[in-house]
């Protein structure tokens, strides 16, 4: 059972005496438009949330159901959002770190350790941390963070779709699909596009 595997991974840290384990993950590093969103989640040592998995392996409907369950069962959670203008100013990696820091700052409990999805630790973080490649498929707390980040970002892009219907953001969430790139060529960029991202920087 995948959920139990994820729980056991986090239990390793609890068993080492680390009482508050926070998983951190992001959504939206690759798109051509919209923000990057990060989430941080702290679960109790006893909490197992059924059907939690890497957000990419879940249907949108399942993610939305788990989104509410995670928020209700978490000891604490935080969400950080960094917009496209800032992404263009400081680059996507630094914007991702900023979103993660913002998410961690929203936690009502200071974690004893932060488990970060990916191969980069968060710079200048005064909390013990560990970077975990494919962490959202290994750790329950990271998987929960991935779901919160993904659902939050999808909701933001659905709202932008109402403002800029010609780009069909509700379908691709800002990723560089053929339809999205054709819309950019036809209509140009809108205020939420990342102007420094290829192919926008060559189209515009």
How would you describe the oligomerization state of the chains in this entry? Answer: single chain
Count the helices. How many?
8
Question: Rg, please?
Answer: 17 Å
> What's the average pLDDT?
95
Helix/strand order, N-terminal first: HEEHEHHEEHHHH
SS class: alpha/beta
Largest sheet: 5 strands, mixed
Describe the structure.
The protein is an alpha/beta fold and 204 residues long. The chain has helices at residues 2-15, 60-73, 84-90, 92-105, 140-163, 169-172, 178-187, 200-203, and strands at 21-27, 36-42, 76-82, 113-117, 129-132. It has a single domain (2-161), classed as Ribonuclease H-like superfamily/Ribonuclease H (Nucleotidyltransferase, domain 5). It is 45% helix and 15% strand. A five-stranded mixed beta sheet has the order 3-2-1-4-5. A hairpin with an 8-residue loop joins strand 1 (21-27) and strand 2. Helix 2 (60-73) packs across helix 5 (140-163) and helix 3 packs across helix 4. The longest helix has 24 residues, at 140-163. The chain is globular. The mean pLDDT is 95.
Please provide a brief summary of the model.
By secondary structure, this protein is α/β, with parallel strands linked by helices.
């Amino acid at each position: 059972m995948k959920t139990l595997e994820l729980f056991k991974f986090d239990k390793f840290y609890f068993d080492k005496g680390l009482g508050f384990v926070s998983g951190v993950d992001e959504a939206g590093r690759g798109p051509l438009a919209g923000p990057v969103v990060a989430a941080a989640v702290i679960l109790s040592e006893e909490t197992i949330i059924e059907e939690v998995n890497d957000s990419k392996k879940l249907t949108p409907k399942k993610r939305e159901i788990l989104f509410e369950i995670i928020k209700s069962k978490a000891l604490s959670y935080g969400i950080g959002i960094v917009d496209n203008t800032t992404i263009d100013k400081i680059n996507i990696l630094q914007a991702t770190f900023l979103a993660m820091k913002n998410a961690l700052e929203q936690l009502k409990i200071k974690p004893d350790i932060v488990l970060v999805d990916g191969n980069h630790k968060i710079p200048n973080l005064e909390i013990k941390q560990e970077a975990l490649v494919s962490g959202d498929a290994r750790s329950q707390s990271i998987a929960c963070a991935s779901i919160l980040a993904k659902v939050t970002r999808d909701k933001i892009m659905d709202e932008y779709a109402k403002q800029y219907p010609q780009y069909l953001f509700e379908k691709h969430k800002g990723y560089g699909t053929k339809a999205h790139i054709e819309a950019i060529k036809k209509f140009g960029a809108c205020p939420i596009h990342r102007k420094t991202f290829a192919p926008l920087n060559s189209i515009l």
